[in-house]
Write a structure and sequence with these properties.
Blueprint (H helix, E strand, L loop, with lengths): L4 E6 L1 H6 E11 L3 H8 L3 E2 L4 E4 L4 E4 L2 E2 L16 E4 L2 H11 L4 E11 L2 E11 L2 H21 L1
Antiparallel strand pairs: 1-8, 2-7, 2-9, 3-6, 4-5, 5-7, 8-9
Length: 149
């Protein structure tokens, strides 16, 4: 990644649980204490998902830890956060979500030029045999790397 991008959090399970079809960069609508927590790396995408409709998209269930210095002006850690996307991208996401078995998953949060960005992906769920195949492929690559040294 370029120098002006700092990855804050990744959703490592997304690539294992889903086939990631198409990726988008979305801005996040945040309050002051949230951006301070995110800059400190206090965000988790473990249970997070994206809800989309024809009017917009929201990041749901992402946990942004309360900022200690914000005292009574703190934010709700699990509140829905609006995603900032172009209309064309919103339409594309909304059309994709209406298909059976397709969802939108957050893959990473990063800081780009001082602004928090969220990488989201249109994803299709993997079946159990696909996951087993991925594990077998990863193990085979690991063995080849060991033999190569």
């Amino acid at each position: 990644m370029p120098d002006h991008i700092k990855v804050v959090a990744t959703n490592r399970k997304a690539g294992f649980e889903y086939f990631l079809l198409e990726r988008f960069e979305a801005g996040l609508s945040l309050v002051g204490s949230e951006i301070k927590s995110i800059r400190a790396g206090q965000i988790s995408l473990a249970e997070a998902y994206v809800r989309a409709d024809e009017r917009g998209a929201w990041l749901m269930e992402a946990h942004v830890a309360p900022y200690i210095q914000a005292n009574r002006f703190n934010h709700d850690p699990k509140r829905p956060r609006r995603l900032l996307l172009h209309k064309k991208e919103m339409r594309e996401l909304w059309d994709a979500v209406r298909q059976k078995g397709v969802t939108i998953v957050p893959t990473k949060v990063y800081l780009k030029d001082g602004r928090a960005k969220l990488e989201i992906a249109i994803a299709k769920g993997k079946k159990l045999h696909d996951k087993r195949e991925a594990i077998a492929r990863r193990d085979a690559e690991r063995e080849m790397d060991r033999e190569g040294r």
